[in-house]
Design a protein that fits this description.
It is a single chain. It is built from 10 helices and no strands. The longest helix has 26 residues. The chain is globular, with a radius of gyration of 16 Å.
């Protein structure tokens, strides 16, 4: 029964996480396929490039919300271990959604939602780290990478090894999804927040 619960939690998390809200909301608003705009990403940052701030905020909220919902629902149904599995699966569902050929977002908002569900303190630290770096350096990608790099450390300090391991898995995937951004940061060609729009990758 324990293994069955974890499998169910993984399935539930993945299905919730794979709902492509950025794609759905922009289509519903008559803005076309978000994958043909800006970086081609389905996340809130690229939705913002449509010029619709409300839609971008809604995408951010829904992408974070589905991560938190997966964790909270799995915890209610099957317990804490299942909640962690569901959170990881929700993040992977967002990044690799079956509905879009496994080509999804970069996972920042869903990472935040998952962490807020698993441990709200670590989730808030992630948000604070992102905001500080984004404000100081004006690079959204650098803010996300810094927050992801430090999240496992804070998770270990606040909660312990299990949460740190889960955060580590999410961080590795998030960094891999930001590989093009890392190259541009290294070469000095990464656009700053409010600057030139990056080309689709």
């Amino acid at each position: 029964m324990i293994y069955q619960a974890l499998i169910f939690a993984a399935g539930l998390g993945y299905l919730l996480g794979s709902i492509p809200f950025g794609f759905i909301l922009t289509r519903a608003a008559g803005l076309g396929d978000i994958r043909s705009i800006g970086s081609g990403n389905i996340g809130a940052t690229n939705v913002l490039r449509t010029g619709n701030k409300a839609l971008a905020a809604a995408t951010l909220a829904f992408d974070a919300g589905k991560g938190a919902a997966a964790v909270l629902l799995a915890r209610w149904l099957w317990g804490e271990d299942a909640a962690m599995i569901a959170g990881i699966a929700a993040f992977l569902g967002h990044v690799f959604p079956v509905w879009l050929g496994f080509k999804g977002g970069k996972g920042v908002a869903t990472y935040i939602g998952v962490m807020l569900g698993l441990n709200w303190i670590v989730g808030l630290i992630f948000c604070a780290t992102w905001l500080v770096i984004a404000f100081a350096q004006k690079y959204s990608s650098l803010a996300a990478l810094t927050a992801a790099a430090t999240a496992p450390i804070f998770a270990y300090v606040v909660s312990g090894l299990q949460l740190a391991a889960a955060a580590g898995v999410l961080s590795i995937v998030l960094m891999a999804r930001h590989w093009a951004n890392i190259r541009r940061l290294w070469s000095g060609t990464e656009p700053r927040i409010g600057g030139e729009k990056p080309k689709a990758e």
